[in-house]
Amino acid sequence: MKPENKDLIKALLEHSASLQEDIFDDTEEMLGTVPFVLRVMARRPQFMIFSSLKDFYALRPKSVDARTAELLAVAAAASAGAGQVPAGAQGRGPAGQSEQRRDPGLGAQDLSGA
């Protein structure tokens, strides 16, 4: 990497506390909360800042509005099989528990606020 680019990255990371605060604020505005994983990532500012910048630009493309971007993300996840139970895993749970005894966890209705 060119020395001048290393200097730019170093200069950016010198403002990591301010950047983290902005990232937390933007995330809370977008999601209504700051996820625990983001606070854990903040322990490594060089990782958290660049990862968050990537996510913000990927999740907020200028070519489509926010609602369409979210719809595209859901469609991509659905087409990739998100939410499907792997073959042979139905009815089995951890440590031999039956499907009925397992905690179902959060469903889409729990996340939508409905």
Q: What does this 3D model show about the protein?
A:
With 114 residues, the protein is mainly α. The chain has a domain at 16-60. Helix content is 59%, strand content 0%. It contains six helices and no strands. Helix 2 (16-31) packs across helix 4. It is elongated. The protein starts with a helix and ends with a helix. Residues 98-103 and 105-114 have low confidence and may be disordered.
Number of strands: 0
Mean pLDDT: 77
Shape: elongated
Q: In percent, how much strand structure appears in the residues?
A: under 5%
List the helices and strands and how they pair.
Elements lengths: L2 H11 L2 H16 L4 H6 L3 H15 L6 H14 L28 H5 L2
Summarize this structure as a short list of keywords or feature phrases:
single chain, 114 residues, mainly alpha, 6 helices, 59% helix, elongated, disordered C terminus
What is the structure about, briefly put?
With 114 residues, this protein is an all-alpha fold.
